[in-house]
Design brief:
Elements: E1 2-10, E2 13-21, E3 31-40, H1 42-49, E4 65-73, E5 83-87, E6 102-105, E7 110-112, H2 119-141, E8 151-153, H3 159-170, E9 175-179, H4 185-191, E10 195-198, H5 199-202, E11 214-219, H6 223-232, E12 233-241, H7 255-259, E13 263-266, H8 274-287, H9 290-296, E14 297-301, H10 305-313, E15 320-324
Parallel strand pairs: 8-9, 8-11, 9-10, 11-12, 12-13, 14-15
Antiparallel strand pairs: 1-2, 3-4, 3-6, 3-15, 4-5, 5-7
Helix pairs in contact: 1-10, 2-3, 2-8
């Protein structure tokens, strides 16, 4: 038997309950992982609270991230005791996820734990950190180097934003951080931000082109803020867009693209190819020291997930929330 948080629906409403399940109830897969830690992402918050159409069917064990060790494997690539990470691939949405002590998954979804990283650190990073690293790599692909100027990060207090700020600062970029939380300034400066901008300032509807301010951007929010970032991006800049916390709309024009050669690069981590995942995880281990990860880390138990799921959907969670399955 193992403990799990299970989502179901009753009278059209999503309900969550901690249950003891039998191993035979696990969905099909090639590898069984003993999960030691998971993490709470914005998408998990939407799933647990029922505020978003995240889950494809019920009952469902949510949790789009998990880290632990292999318990059983039917493939030669993984053996019992191997430390592994799973992010993406519909885990926690279409396939039972990480909010449980056991998970059965496909071998192709696993990434070996980078040497020098443990499960807590992996889940401080999680999908949010992987996405942030992929955004940084997109900026690098767009030839946005530290000497080109300031990189702006929107939604900087959230999971993706926090890791992006820390990574960019560590790599030598000057970082401007946008946040809607007046109390987050010190936190973002500790992560490496050189400039703090208010969400209100960046939410003012822009003209088609504004003064050139940014060499590049990591945008996690979409909407008017992304439109303003694009209008303020300097010639030959790159904007890596990975989120929609504010809006799915993009009220902009073609002007930044055809007059300033701005590149808007979408970033998606769910189905990121294995080799690029491995590169990203290796770089995360190299570029994020334990002290920086500690600044972002908050540990909770599985029983606390519903409470924190509500908080994260309301923008009341800072940094990264890690779930200790043994707590």
């Amino acid at each position: 038997m193992f403990k799990a948080l299970v989502l179901d629906q009753k009278d059209g409403k999503t309900i969550s309950e901690i249950k003891q399940l039998d191993e035979d109830s696990l969905p099909p897969g090639e590898v069984i992982v003993e999960v030691s830690h998971s993490s709470l992402n914005y998408k998990d918050g939407l799933a647990v609270t029922g505020k978003g159409k995240i889950v494809s069917h019920y009952p469902m064990v949510p949790g789009i991230d998990l880290a632990g060790t292999v318990r059983e494997s039917s493939v030669p690539e993984y053996r019992p005791g191997d430390p592994v990470i799973v992010t993406g691939w519909g885990v926690g949405e279409r396939h039972w996820g990480g909010f449980a002590e056991l998970a059965r998954v496909q071998a192709g979804w696993l990434v070996p734990m980078p040497e020098g990283m443990d499960a807590v650190q992996a889940m401080v990073i999680g999908t949010a950190g992987l996405t942030a690293m992929l955004c940084v790599m997109a900026l690098e692909d767009g030839h946005v180097t530290p000497d080109k100027g300031t990189v702006i990060v929107t939604g900087a207090s959230g999971g993706v934003g926090s890791v992006a700020v820390a990574l960019l600062a560590r790599l030598g970029y000057r970082v401007a951080a946008v946040t809607g939380r007046a109390t987050s300034g010190d936190y973002l400066q500790q992560l490496g931000a050189s400039e703090i901008l208010s969400r209100e300032e960046m939410s003012v509807k822009p003209r088609p082109l504004e003064k050139q301010r940014w060499a590049g951007s990591v945008d996690t929010v979409g909407g008017v803020i992304l439109a303003r970032v694009l209008a303020e991006t300097q010639f030959d800049g790159t904007v890596a867009a990975c989120g929609l916390a504010a809006s799915v709309d993009l009220p902009t024009t073609v002007m930044p693209f055809i007059l300033r050669n701005v590149r808007l690069q979408g970033v998606e981590s769910v189905q990121c190819p294995f080799e690029r995942r491995k590169i990203a995880w290796r770089r995360l281990q190299q570029e994020l020291p334990e002290s920086v990860l500690g600044e972002m880390e908050s540990l909770i138990s599985l029983e606390q997930v519903p409470e924190y799921a509500e908080k994260i959907t309301l923008g009341q969670v800072r940094g990264r929330t890690v779930i200790d399955l043994k707590r």
